[in-house]
């Protein structure tokens, strides 16, 4: 078998990096370029997982080109209360998380409807919004 001169030269071409395949990776990459509130809100949505797993929520909140994804907070905030069918806990969680990512007035009494898991996620998002990474959110003995 004969080899041409080009067969013996290693391929040094560099392909452009592929876009992350997972939506969570694309949202995380986008959030890294955004302000603290948006980073905290995206982290909360990804950590909670259940709400963002809903197709109707993703369709309204996330603009996804396949290569890039981002949250359209103004569009979502303007429509989610009337378009989505949410239980009390989901609505409370979204009210608070959207307020972190897209600042607006929000009734803080909504924390009563969260349950422990979502409350911890919202508290971590609020700590991140405040620029604090030293506050531990978890079980405390009083």
Short description:
The protein is mainly α. The protein has helices at residues 23-31, 36-48, 50-53, 55-61, 73-83, 88-101, 116-129; strands at residues 62-64, 69-71.
Describe the protein's architecture and organization.
This protein has 142 residues and is mainly α. Helix content is 51%, strand content 4%. The protein is built from seven helices and two strands, in the order ααααββααα. Strands 1-2 form a two-stranded antiparallel ribbon. Strand 1 and strand 2 form a beta hairpin. The protein is globular, with a radius of gyration of 21 Å. The mean pLDDT is 82.
Overview features:
142 residues; 7 helices; 51% helix; globular
Structural class call reads: mainly alpha
Shape: globular
The residue fraction in helices comes out at: 40-55%
Number of helices: 7
Order of helices and strands: HHHHEEHHH
Q: What is the number of beta strands?
A: 2
Q: Tell me the Rg in angstroms.
A: 21 Å
Portion in strands: under 5%
Task: Tell me the strand order in the biggest sheet.
Answer: 1-2
* Oligomeric state, counting identical vs distinct chains: single chain
Which residues sit in consecutive blocks of at least 5 with pLDDT less than 50? none
Mean pLDDT: 82
Largest sheet: 2 strands, antiparallel
Question: How far apart, in Å, are the first and last alpha carbons?
Answer: 79 Å
